[in-house]
Amino acid sequence: MKNSREMNGCEHCPSKGQGIFCELKNSELHEISEHKVTNTYKKGQTLFVQGNHPFGIYCINSGNIKVTKTGPDGKESIVRIVKGGDVLGHRSLFTNDYYSATATAIEDSKVCFIDKKYILKVIEEKPSVALNVINKLSRDMGAAESKLTSLHQKNVRERLAELFLLLKETHGEEVSTGRFKLNIKLTREEMATMIGTANETLIRFISEFKDENLIEQEGKVLFVVNEEKLVDWANLNY
After folding, report:
1. Confidence at residue 5, expressed as pLDDT on a 0 to 100 scale
2. How many whole angstroms separate alpha carbon 225 and alpha carbon 128?
3. The pLDDT of residue 222
4. Which residue of 52, 63, 168, 205 is 20 to 30 Å from 95, comparing CA positions?
Protein backbone atom coordinates (compact mmCIF):
# COMPACT_ATOMS: atom_id res chain seq x y z
CA MET A 1 0.00 0.00 0.00
CA LYS A 2 1.36 3.38 -1.00
CA ASN A 3 0.92 6.01 1.71
CA SER A 4 1.61 9.67 0.84
CA ARG A 5 0.47 13.25 1.22
CA GLU A 6 -1.04 14.35 -2.06
CA MET A 7 0.03 17.62 -3.63
CA ASN A 8 -3.46 18.23 -5.02
CA GLY A 9 -6.01 18.83 -2.28
CA CYS A 10 -9.69 18.08 -1.77
CA GLU A 11 -10.66 21.05 -3.94
CA HIS A 12 -9.28 19.15 -6.96
CA CYS A 13 -10.79 15.75 -6.07
CA PRO A 14 -12.54 14.16 -9.09
CA SER A 15 -15.35 13.02 -6.78
CA LYS A 16 -15.74 16.31 -4.90
CA GLY A 17 -19.23 16.96 -6.26
CA GLN A 18 -20.55 13.65 -4.85
CA GLY A 19 -18.86 13.75 -1.44
CA ILE A 20 -19.90 15.00 1.99
CA PHE A 21 -17.72 18.11 1.55
CA CYS A 22 -19.30 19.13 -1.76
CA GLU A 23 -20.76 22.40 -0.44
CA LEU A 24 -17.61 23.71 1.21
CA LYS A 25 -15.54 26.56 -0.20
CA ASN A 26 -12.11 25.85 -1.69
CA SER A 27 -10.41 27.48 1.31
CA GLU A 28 -12.28 25.11 3.64
CA LEU A 29 -11.44 22.12 1.45
CA HIS A 30 -7.79 23.12 1.54
CA GLU A 31 -7.89 23.02 5.35
CA ILE A 32 -9.38 19.52 5.27
CA SER A 33 -6.62 18.49 2.86
CA GLU A 34 -4.09 19.41 5.52
CA HIS A 35 -5.67 16.84 7.87
CA LYS A 36 -6.00 13.88 5.52
CA VAL A 37 -3.78 11.04 4.41
CA THR A 38 -4.23 9.58 0.94
CA ASN A 39 -3.65 5.88 0.37
CA THR A 40 -3.53 3.94 -2.88
CA TYR A 41 -4.93 0.44 -2.45
CA LYS A 42 -4.22 -2.31 -4.94
CA LYS A 43 -6.94 -4.79 -5.91
CA GLY A 44 -7.52 -7.18 -3.00
CA GLN A 45 -6.04 -4.94 -0.29
CA THR A 46 -8.20 -4.10 2.73
CA LEU A 47 -8.96 -0.67 4.16
CA PHE A 48 -10.23 -2.05 7.46
CA VAL A 49 -11.34 -5.37 8.88
CA GLN A 50 -14.53 -6.41 10.64
CA GLY A 51 -14.05 -6.30 14.42
CA ASN A 52 -11.29 -3.69 14.38
CA HIS A 53 -11.53 -0.42 16.29
CA PRO A 54 -12.40 2.59 14.06
CA PHE A 55 -10.19 5.68 14.06
CA GLY A 56 -11.87 7.89 11.45
CA ILE A 57 -13.58 7.93 8.08
CA TYR A 58 -12.50 6.97 4.59
CA CYS A 59 -13.43 9.14 1.60
CA ILE A 60 -13.27 7.35 -1.75
CA ASN A 61 -11.39 9.46 -4.29
CA SER A 62 -11.55 6.93 -7.12
CA GLY A 63 -12.02 3.19 -7.64
CA ASN A 64 -14.46 0.66 -6.20
CA ILE A 65 -14.53 -0.87 -2.72
CA LYS A 66 -16.63 -3.83 -1.60
CA VAL A 67 -17.99 -3.92 1.94
CA THR A 68 -18.41 -7.46 3.25
CA LYS A 69 -19.65 -9.15 6.39
CA THR A 70 -18.57 -12.55 7.64
CA GLY A 71 -21.18 -14.59 9.51
CA PRO A 72 -20.66 -17.03 12.40
CA ASP A 73 -20.40 -19.83 9.82
CA GLY A 74 -17.49 -18.05 8.11
CA LYS A 75 -19.53 -17.25 5.02
CA GLU A 76 -18.86 -13.87 3.46
CA SER A 77 -21.59 -11.69 1.99
CA ILE A 78 -21.25 -8.38 0.14
CA VAL A 79 -23.19 -5.62 1.86
CA ARG A 80 -22.62 -2.97 -0.78
CA ILE A 81 -20.19 -1.54 -3.32
CA VAL A 82 -18.90 2.01 -2.83
CA LYS A 83 -17.22 4.25 -5.41
CA GLY A 84 -15.75 7.72 -5.81
CA GLY A 85 -17.58 10.28 -3.67
CA ASP A 86 -18.74 7.73 -1.09
CA VAL A 87 -17.52 7.52 2.51
CA LEU A 88 -16.87 4.56 4.78
CA GLY A 89 -16.67 4.37 8.55
CA HIS A 90 -19.11 7.24 9.05
CA ARG A 91 -21.51 5.18 11.17
CA SER A 92 -18.78 4.57 13.72
CA LEU A 93 -18.31 8.33 14.17
CA PHE A 94 -21.21 8.47 16.59
CA THR A 95 -20.74 5.15 18.38
CA ASN A 96 -18.04 3.21 20.16
CA ASP A 97 -18.73 0.12 18.07
CA TYR A 98 -16.07 -1.81 16.22
CA TYR A 99 -16.22 -2.07 12.46
CA SER A 100 -19.14 -4.35 11.59
CA ALA A 101 -17.77 -5.15 8.14
CA THR A 102 -14.58 -5.41 6.08
CA ALA A 103 -13.73 -3.03 3.22
CA THR A 104 -11.64 -4.39 0.34
CA ALA A 105 -10.57 -2.80 -2.95
CA ILE A 106 -11.95 -4.66 -5.97
CA GLU A 107 -9.73 -2.59 -8.24
CA ASP A 108 -6.88 -0.14 -7.74
CA SER A 109 -8.43 2.66 -5.67
CA LYS A 110 -7.39 5.97 -4.11
CA VAL A 111 -8.83 6.62 -0.66
CA CYS A 112 -8.40 9.52 1.76
CA PHE A 113 -8.44 8.97 5.53
CA ILE A 114 -9.47 11.63 8.07
CA ASP A 115 -9.12 10.89 11.78
CA LYS A 116 -12.20 10.82 14.00
CA LYS A 117 -11.28 13.80 16.22
CA TYR A 118 -10.85 16.17 13.28
CA ILE A 119 -13.89 15.04 11.26
CA LEU A 120 -16.11 15.44 14.34
CA LYS A 121 -14.80 19.00 14.65
CA VAL A 122 -15.68 19.66 11.00
CA ILE A 123 -19.18 18.22 11.47
CA GLU A 124 -19.70 20.44 14.51
CA GLU A 125 -18.55 23.59 12.71
CA LYS A 126 -19.96 22.96 9.20
CA PRO A 127 -23.73 22.29 9.13
CA SER A 128 -23.63 21.25 5.45
CA VAL A 129 -21.19 18.44 6.25
CA ALA A 130 -23.35 17.29 9.17
CA LEU A 131 -26.44 17.21 6.94
CA ASN A 132 -24.60 15.29 4.23
CA VAL A 133 -23.44 12.69 6.76
CA ILE A 134 -27.02 12.33 8.07
CA ASN A 135 -28.26 12.01 4.49
CA LYS A 136 -25.64 9.34 3.80
CA LEU A 137 -26.64 7.38 6.90
CA SER A 138 -30.32 7.62 5.88
CA ARG A 139 -29.62 6.40 2.35
CA ASP A 140 -27.52 3.53 3.68
CA MET A 141 -30.36 2.48 5.96
CA GLY A 142 -32.86 2.68 3.13
CA ALA A 143 -30.64 0.60 0.85
CA ALA A 144 -30.16 -2.01 3.59
CA GLU A 145 -33.92 -2.26 4.14
CA SER A 146 -34.55 -2.60 0.41
CA LYS A 147 -31.94 -5.33 0.10
CA LEU A 148 -33.40 -7.25 3.04
CA THR A 149 -36.87 -7.02 1.53
CA SER A 150 -35.57 -8.18 -1.86
CA LEU A 151 -33.79 -11.21 -0.37
CA HIS A 152 -36.93 -12.29 1.47
CA GLN A 153 -39.61 -11.52 -1.12
CA LYS A 154 -38.01 -11.95 -4.55
CA ASN A 155 -36.74 -14.95 -6.48
CA VAL A 156 -33.22 -15.18 -7.94
CA ARG A 157 -34.25 -13.92 -11.38
CA GLU A 158 -35.85 -10.82 -9.89
CA ARG A 159 -32.88 -10.16 -7.61
CA LEU A 160 -30.41 -10.46 -10.48
CA ALA A 161 -32.43 -8.07 -12.63
CA GLU A 162 -32.52 -5.64 -9.71
CA LEU A 163 -28.73 -5.96 -9.29
CA PHE A 164 -28.11 -5.10 -12.95
CA LEU A 165 -30.37 -2.06 -12.62
CA LEU A 166 -28.49 -0.96 -9.50
CA LEU A 167 -25.11 -1.36 -11.22
CA LYS A 168 -26.44 0.55 -14.21
CA GLU A 169 -27.42 3.46 -11.92
CA THR A 170 -24.17 3.49 -9.93
CA HIS A 171 -21.58 2.45 -12.52
CA GLY A 172 -23.35 2.65 -15.88
CA GLU A 173 -21.99 4.67 -18.80
CA GLU A 174 -24.26 5.16 -21.80
CA VAL A 175 -22.13 4.24 -24.81
CA SER A 176 -24.99 4.34 -27.31
CA THR A 177 -28.72 4.94 -27.12
CA GLY A 178 -30.14 2.62 -24.46
CA ARG A 179 -26.86 0.68 -24.10
CA PHE A 180 -24.98 1.07 -20.81
CA LYS A 181 -21.48 -0.19 -20.08
CA LEU A 182 -21.02 -1.32 -16.46
CA ASN A 183 -17.72 0.21 -15.34
CA ILE A 184 -17.13 -2.25 -12.54
CA LYS A 185 -15.49 -5.65 -12.57
CA LEU A 186 -17.21 -8.12 -10.26
CA THR A 187 -16.47 -11.82 -10.20
CA ARG A 188 -19.35 -14.25 -10.56
CA GLU A 189 -18.78 -15.24 -6.93
CA GLU A 190 -19.11 -11.62 -5.80
CA MET A 191 -22.31 -11.12 -7.79
CA ALA A 192 -23.72 -14.37 -6.38
CA THR A 193 -23.14 -13.25 -2.78
CA MET A 194 -24.77 -9.89 -3.52
CA ILE A 195 -28.06 -11.56 -4.45
CA GLY A 196 -27.80 -14.50 -2.06
CA THR A 197 -27.51 -17.42 -4.46
CA ALA A 198 -25.08 -20.11 -5.56
CA ASN A 199 -22.46 -19.36 -8.20
CA GLU A 200 -23.85 -22.03 -10.54
CA THR A 201 -27.35 -20.57 -10.28
CA LEU A 202 -26.07 -17.08 -11.06
CA ILE A 203 -24.23 -18.29 -14.17
CA ARG A 204 -27.38 -20.03 -15.42
CA PHE A 205 -29.49 -16.90 -15.01
CA ILE A 206 -26.85 -14.65 -16.61
CA SER A 207 -26.99 -16.92 -19.66
CA GLU A 208 -30.77 -16.55 -19.67
CA PHE A 209 -30.48 -12.75 -19.49
CA LYS A 210 -28.09 -12.83 -22.46
CA ASP A 211 -30.41 -15.09 -24.46
CA GLU A 212 -33.30 -12.71 -23.80
CA ASN A 213 -31.12 -9.72 -24.88
CA LEU A 214 -31.38 -7.94 -21.54
CA ILE A 215 -27.61 -7.77 -21.20
CA GLU A 216 -24.57 -8.29 -23.41
CA GLN A 217 -20.98 -9.18 -22.67
CA GLU A 218 -17.73 -8.24 -24.40
CA GLY A 219 -14.79 -10.00 -22.79
CA LYS A 220 -15.29 -9.40 -19.07
CA VAL A 221 -17.35 -6.23 -19.57
CA LEU A 222 -21.13 -6.36 -19.15
CA PHE A 223 -23.65 -4.07 -20.84
CA VAL A 224 -27.28 -3.36 -19.95
CA VAL A 225 -29.17 -3.16 -23.24
CA ASN A 226 -32.84 -3.44 -22.25
CA GLU A 227 -33.53 -1.47 -19.09
CA GLU A 228 -37.30 -1.53 -19.54
CA LYS A 229 -37.42 -5.32 -19.60
CA LEU A 230 -35.04 -5.53 -16.63
CA VAL A 231 -37.44 -3.35 -14.64
CA ASP A 232 -40.24 -5.72 -15.56
CA TRP A 233 -38.22 -8.81 -14.62
CA ALA A 234 -37.12 -7.18 -11.35
CA ASN A 235 -40.76 -6.58 -10.44
CA LEU A 236 -40.06 -2.91 -9.78
CA ASN A 237 -42.30 0.11 -10.06
CA TYR A 238 -40.29 3.11 -11.20
Report:
1. 46
2. 38
3. 95
4. 63
Domains of the chain and any CATH numbers: 2-140 (2.60.120.10), 152-233 (1.10.10.10)
Tell me what pLDDT residue 8 has. Answer: 53
DSSP 23-82: TS-HHHHHHHHTTEEEEEEPTT-EEE-TTSPP-EEEEEEESEEEEEEE-TTS-EEEEEEE
- The overall longest dimension of the chain from CA atoms, in Å, is 55
Measure the CA–CA gap between 224 and 25, rounded to whole angstroms.
38
Residue 70 pLDDT class (50, 70, 90 cuts): confident
**Is 155 in a helix, a strand, or coil?**
coil
First to last CA, the chain: 42
Characterize 160-188 residue by residue with b for buried, 16 or more Cβ atoms within 10 angstroms of its Cβ, and e for exposed.
bbbbbbbbbebbbeeeeeeebbbebebee
pLDDT 10s digits, 112-134 = 998 988 888 888 888 887 777 77
Measure Cα distances from 31 to 27, 28, 55, 71 in Å.
7, 5, 20, 40
